[in-house]
Amino acid sequence: QQQQQQQQQQQQPHNPHTTIPCKFDCILAAETTYTLQSAQETAYLLSHHLDPKCGIGFVAMKRYYFGVGGGSDAFCTACHDYGLETELVEVYQDGKSNIRDLWRVQIKHKSPSR
Fold this sequence. Notes:
By secondary structure, this protein is of the alpha+beta class. 30% of the residues lie in helices and 25% in strands. 23% of the residues are buried.
């Protein structure tokens, strides 16, 4: 019976929108944006779990994941959709492999009305 329950749990799809009732000052991630869906899920996680006052995320990724569609452009688009600011912090380029980017992410603060 225990084995049967474990098999059922493994067959259930992962829910990226699981509620974690916490906000964090810093979130680090790497290689989490390799498809369009994973780029969306990473942006969603950051938008819901960074502290709006002081939270900063750093996300490292390849600029483009060939054949699967993720990477920097997909991630930045997803961040914009979720109200996040992105800033390219560093580019890692050795001339031999795919270019890698390090992005800084924060929740956008609305400008005060005049």
